[in-house]
Amino acid sequence: MTTKILLLFLAIFTINVWAITIKEIPKNVTIQGENGGLAGNDAAWDSSTIKDKVYVMFYIDPDEKDTNEHFSKKLNEKKYDKTNYGNIAIVNLAATWKPNVVIENLLKSKQKEFPDTIYVKDKKSVLVKEWGLKDDASNILIFSKDSKLLFYKSGKISEDDIKKAFNIIEENL
């Protein structure tokens, strides 16, 4: 019985060590090679590039792409200055039944349509494993210019959370 309790404690502790925490810089992660990479050219994406701007990151299961469409539209309407603000869209390809080739082609066209957004393919749920993000979900994260996580929401974002997100962005620009 004591061994089971110790193993449970260690499992919970290990999960919490890797989980992202508000006001902290998440563990550095690189997505490359068989794990994925940038949508346009398959180059490695490194989370250490989340700096010098306020970034809004969408980490999305393709099957949940419409979950926070209302927030995405409002965000685009804001037209924040691109020298101080950026978007990252990471697609969790492991979370869907849809063929990767179809989604990858869609991402390439999105990259051309929205060249200021960084599009990343995560073929093996790397950020689910490394940062503890929710799998099979729509996740929204906001980072400060000094790489700290300021906001995290998984699932459908409420109007109150949208107001909070915009306040966080505007206070940190």
Structure, explained:
- There is one protein chain.
- A six-stranded mixed sheet has the order 2-6-5-4-7-8, covered by helices on one side.
- The longest helix is centred in the N-terminal third of the chain and has 17 residues.
- The chain is about 35% helix and about 25% strand.
- The protein has about 170 residues and is of the alpha/beta class.
Number of helices: 5
Largest sheet: 6 strands, mixed
**How big is the Rg?**
17 Å
Count of strand segments: 8
Q: State mean pLDDT (0 to 100 scale).
A: 89
CATH topology: Glutaredoxin
Going by CATH, the homologous superfamily would be Glutaredoxin
Helix content: 25-40%
Helix-strand sequence: HEEEEHEHEHEEH
Q: Which helices and strands occur, and which strands form pairs?
A:
Elements: H1 2-18, E1 30-31, E2 36-38, E3 45-46, E4 54-60, H2 69-78, E5 85-92, H3 100-113, E6 117-122, H4 126-131, E7 138-143, E8 149-154, H5 159-172
Parallel strand pairs: 4-5, 5-6
Antiparallel strand pairs: 1-3, 2-6, 4-7, 7-8
